[in-house]
Design goal:
Layout: H1 11-29, H2 35-41, H3 44-56, H4 62-69, H5 74-85, H6 105-121, H7 137-152, H8 157-189, H9 194-213, H10 246-253
Helix pairs in contact: 1-3, 1-7, 1-9, 3-4, 4-9, 6-10, 7-8, 8-9
Length: 256
């Protein structure tokens, strides 16, 4: 009797795994700067996995080589994050979806609630020692990675189709609508930076995914929402809480 053979991975499953690999990398680059993490992603094994994922999706592997070449040291990653993203929501290149949306408080709360609803529906809890808002660039990429992994590991076609449908809806209503404008702001601020190079990878992955799902990509330039008095209290992630500003926080606390 011949030994049982493992079932081959379908091309759709493999593509989903490739997207998950790149999405996790993109998310990490915009949220991690610890020297140990930097050294890990600069290793040959990680580089090989990332290049394989790019090639598997039909993307230029030079995108990975360019990003890693710009990563000279742990300090350069930290400097890039601090200089381009800053420590407040309203930086030179705000990494938050709401900054590219209408400024009316109710609309902002609805957008955050909708994003959080996507996360809850798939068991994704974007919390930890350093809490970030649901509309943070890296958090949205982590969620897209989760959807891709769930698609690849789906037990049947119905589960897989559910993940694909959710990805299409999330890209349409959120990620694809504002991320190109965010990446463009990084590019204009410092086109040679580590984050700009990773941003180009993010653009490529987003574009490939949107073409596959027939989703329209947002413009490369969007004006930021007007600032208000409450913006002086808004900050990025902090242990145990996420600052939204008093007006927006009050709306979110109201019973639905």
């Amino acid at each position: 009797m011949s030994a049982p053979t493992s079932m081959p991975i379908r091309s759709s499953e493999l593509s989903a795994l490739h997207r998950a690999t790149l999405a996790r990398f993109i998310a990490g680059c915009f949220s991690e700067s610890e020297p140990a993490w930097v050294e890990l992603i600069r290793g040959p094994a990680i580089r090989a996995d990332l290049e394989q994922a790019c090639a598997g999706l039909g993307l230029d592997t030079a995108l990975i080589r360019s990003a890693l070449a710009a990563l000279d040291s742990g300090a350069s990653a930290a400097d890039s994050l601090a200089q381009l993203l800053g420590h407040t929501v309203r930086s030179e290149a705000p990494p938050y979806e709401l900054e590219y949306r209408a400024s009316e408080v109710f609309q902002q709360s609805q957008t955050l609630a909708d994003i959080a609803g996507f996360y809850r529906a798939f068991g994704f809890e974007p919390y930890g020692p350093l809490t970030e808002r649901a509309d943070f660039f890296a958090t949205e990429w982590e969620f897209l990675a989760v959807l891709s992994i769930m698609e690849a590991r789906a037990e049947d076609e119905e589960q897989s189709a559910c993940c694909v449908s959710a990805a299409r809806e999330f890209l349409t209503e959120h990620a694809a609508a504002w991320m190109p404008a965010f990446v463009e702001r990084i590019r204009r601020a410092d086109a040679t930076s580590f984050l700009a190079r990773v941003g180009e990878l993010a653009e490529a992955v987003l574009g490939q995914w949107c073409r596959e799902l027939d989703v329209a990509i947002g413009p490369r330039w969007l004006e930021l929402r007007p600032t208000s008095a409450e913006d002086s209290t808004i900050s990025c992630g902090a242990p145990g809480q996420v600052e939204l500003g008093p007006a927006l926080a009050a709306v979110l606390e109201e019973p639905s």
